Amino acid sequence: MARVYLKEGDGRITVNGRPAEEYFSAFAFGTDHLNRHLLSPFYATGTIGRYAVRARVDGGGPTGQLEAVRLGIARALVEMTPEFKKPLKDAGLLTRDSRAVERKKYGHRKARKKEQYSKR
């Protein structure tokens, strides 16, 4: 889950009190991967470097956290400037990834994996 705050600024992105490059570099994301994903809401709206971003994120893995921050940025941009809704929606940046872990069923080893079958 991510909580994102936007304000007019220098384009700096801070995640959990650390610069985004530093926070996500621990997960072996390259700078180009960060720019392509984390900054995509700004590219879609043409607002690169106009806002300072402060985000608190927890839970999930590194990719999930990155996408949660990206969704938070997109929603915050729409909150500040409603005209940004169309370009962000067209770019698919306002869609929440609704996939969740499938539950384990009884009689199975995992969600779908069955016990090994022995014919004899």
According to CATH, the fold-level topology is: Ribosomal Protein S5, domain 2
Largest sheet: 4 strands, mixed
What's the number of helices? Answer: 5
Per CATH, the architecture is: 2-Layer Sandwich
Strand order across the biggest sheet? Answer: 1-4-2-3
Radius of gyration: 19 Å
User: Rough shape?
Assistant: elongated
Helix and strand pattern: EEEHHHEHH
Coarse structural class: alpha+beta
Low-pLDDT sequence parts: none
The portion of residues forming beta strands comes to 15-25%
Overall number of structural domains: 1
CATH class: Alpha Beta
Q: Characterize the quaternary organization of these chains.
A: single chain
**Secondary structure tally: strands:** 4
Helix coverage percent of residues?
25-40%
Overall pLDDT, averaged? Answer: 91
Amino-to-carboxy terminus distance: 50 Å
Descriptive account of the structure:
- This protein has 120 residues and is α+β, with helices and mostly antiparallel strands.
- The chain has one domain: Ribosomal Protein S5, domain 2.
- The protein contains five helices and four strands.
- It has helices spanning 20-25, 31-38, 40-45, 62-80, 85-90, and strands at residues 2-8, 13-15, 18-19, 51-57.
- It has a four-stranded mixed beta sheet.
- The longest helix has 19 residues, at 62-80.
- The protein is elongated, with a radius of gyration of 19 Å.
- The N and C termini lie far apart (50 Å).
- The mean pLDDT is 91.
